[in-house]
Amino acid sequence: MKGSPLQNRFVLISGCSGAGKSTLLADLRARGYPVVEEPGRRIIAHELASGGKALPWVDAAAFLHRAIDVALKDMEMAKAHSGWVFFDRGLVDAASALQALTGEPVLHPTCSIHRYHGRVFMTPPWPEIYLTDSERRHGFEAATAEHRRLMETLPTLGYDVIHLPKLSPSARADFVLATLGGGILTEA
């Protein structure tokens, strides 16, 4: 399924937690590309600071509903940028997790209307660099289950899944830009 030319500029970086998405995106940001931070981490930071309950380990459904709302707002705000815009996780991640958790049919109606570039870059499980922290409390087994769910979901939404090689952040950024056509905006 082909998205609009505007959405073709929105590149989703997804995959296994703790597998180098944020460091890859930091490299792309350093090269001058706009990067949209992961909705989940922003929500968790806000909820922890404010004493809120929309946390994945307290009320996962509320957290995922918020993540969907944030991802939709992120996509709307990203329209102000020209050229590639890179997203650290996003709508598909939150909608697929909510549907898996609750059975609520949000994935296809929501993600069919609001689309990213046709190629989604996936970080594979990488146990050698996986770490937990105050915002990522789940273990590696849960992270790999999340990866499997996304690997099943993305093709059903018409996305071409591109596996990111286990390389340095700079080499991964080179790979992403080369795969997208040398970093020059092209219609997919």
UniProtKB/TrEMBL annotation:
Residue ranges annotated for the NadR/Ttd14 AAA domain, each copy included: 11-170
Transmembrane segments: none
Alphabetical list of Pfam families matching this protein: AAA_28
Descriptive protein name: AAA family ATPase
